[in-house]
Amino acid sequence: MQTRLLGQLSVEEFLRDYWQKKPLLIRQALPGFQPPLDINELAGLACEETVESRIVMEQGPEGPWQLFNGPFEESFLQELPSKDWTLLVQAVDQLLPEVAELLKDFDFLPRWRRDDIMISYAPPGGSVGPHIDYYDVFLLQASGQRRWQLGQFCDESTPLRQDTSLKILTDFQADPEADWVLEPGDLLYLPPQLAHWGTSLSEDCTTWSVGFRALSAEEILCGAADFVGEKLQEDQRYTDADLEPLQHPAEIDAAAVSRLRQLLLEVIDQPAAINEWFGRAMTQTKYPDQLLPPEEPWQPEDLQALVAEVDSGDASPLLRIAEGSRLAFRAGDEGRWLFADGEAWPYSEELQGWVEDLCRCYQLDAALITTALKHPEARDLLLQLINQGSIYAEQEEDSD
Ligand code: SIN
Ligand code: CO
Predict the structure, then answer these.
(1) Which ligand 1 atom sits closest to the C-alpha of 131?
(2) How far is the CA of 173 from the centre of ligand 1 (A)?
(3) Is pLDDT at 92 greater than 50 in this prediction?
């Protein structure tokens, strides 16, 4: 399998040799790449109340590697020095569909692993310092030049600077073999926990970071335990019908611990519930309250009306997957679920093709909606997705 992002490398080779293992530089992955937004537009986003943004200054007024959280006043941005700072704006793909376009090139990786596209701008010398991320990241040089230096793999015990709230490494062991200047269209893949340091070399350096998230073991344990726990009965308890005469009345003996472990493993190992929890967890929206449900819940008639418009040649794309929405499905021995933005709905085998088409598309075409109208189960799923804001109807331009 090939994808234009990886150059000569096949998807199979990338997954086998690089994914989660080692970095990869792909020169001119996107030759002629033209970012659809300029630096002023990016700065404009950083001034918006609902957008997550930050600035990192290498020598801030209050100390090294100072972090400022947005939203920012325009005047603050205008008064920034001419070098050594970075502006970072999160989830730009969820704000601008033209930025989200790039994600289509990443369909060789699970969509439910995606976090967002963060866009950074830095004048010369600007960087966020040497650090690691716990996410896989693809760094696309969108404009200008940035020098990337890669270092060692790190973990929780790797020392961090104490004089800043940012997690900056004290000891960055630069690898002389991995020191590159990226030009527009170049792409750098970094596996999690690999130290890296990207410094702007130009006035117009913008970098797009496509991040892939992974839950921590703690998030998995606590999340799954909470979900599975809710389904447990009061009478499922620690039991010790096999109790033997005691050595000491206060001792928790090996048999007690072993009974406990047995119970714990049995109650957590519920395949259907774990499937459901995982799908829900991986499709949670990035920000709470991100979806905008319609003012009036849709009824089947509203879908009929939409299709009728298309039949009469009146309308083109009808419904869109919301920009911040996450869809996934699971079809296995334990059952079939459609997941959208933290919700889960079981569906029948008959709907498998429809669910797959739905989860692949960005815009729902008339065929997908017409099929749904013929199957009450699909129709109800579609209405639920619309009514929770995961799918929305594009407003038609007012002609008068
Ligand atoms: C940046 O774009 O400046 C930072 C991206 C990163 O290092 O993760
Ligand atoms: Co990073």
Answers:
(1) 7
(2) 18
(3) yes
Ligand 2 midpoint to CA 28 (Å): 21
The CATH number for 320's domain is 3.40.366.30
Protein residue with its CA nearest to atom 4 in ligand 1: 128
Do 171 and 307 belong to one domain? no
For the stretch 128-160, pLDDT in tens is: 999 999 999 999 999 999 999 999 999 999 999
Residue 283 lies in a domain: no
Residue nearest to atom 2 of ligand 1 (CA): 120
Closest ligand 1 atom, CA of 122? 3
CA of 77 to the centre of ligand 2 (A): 23
Please tell me whether residues 98 and 167 are part of one structural domain.
yes
Pocket lining: 120 vs ligand 1, CB cutoff 6 Å: yes
Under the banding of pLDDT at 50, 70 and 90, the label for residue 82 is very high
Is residue 396 scored above 80 in pLDDT? no
Residues in the chain: 400
Residues 225 and 206 in one domain: no
196 within some domain: yes
User: Is the CB of residue 207 below 6 angstroms from any atom belonging to ligand 1?
Assistant: yes
* Residue 275, domain member (yes or no): no
Domain that holds residue 55: 4-212
pTM above 0.70, yes or no: yes
Ligand 1 atom closest to Cα of residue 196: 7
Q: Which CATH number is 17's domain given?
A: 2.60.120.650
Q: Which residues contact 182 (CB under 8 A, 6 or more apart)?
A: 25, 139, 141, 145, 146, 147, 148, 188, 207
Q: Is the CB of 204 under 6 A from ligand 1?
A: no
Query: How many Å lie between the centroid of ligand 1 and the Cα of residue 212?
Result: 14
Share the mean pLDDT of the chain.
95
Residue 318 confidence (pLDDT): 81
By CB neighbour count within 10 A (0-12 exposed, 13-18 middle, 19+ buried), where does 320 fall? middle
Residues forming beta bridges with residue 24, ordered by sequence position: 189
User: Structural domain tally of the chain?
Assistant: 3
What is the distance between the alpha carbons of residues 80 and 200, in angstroms, rounded to a whole number?
Answer: 16
Residues 86 and 223 in one domain: no
Confidence of residue 398 (pLDDT cuts 50, 70, 90): very low
Residue 89, pLDDT above cutoff 90: yes
Residues 258 and 343 in one domain: no
Are 353 and 398 spatial neighbours (Cβ–Cβ below 8 Å)? no
Q: Is residue 286 part of a domain?
A: no
> Does residue 128 line the site of ligand 1, with CB under 6 A?
yes
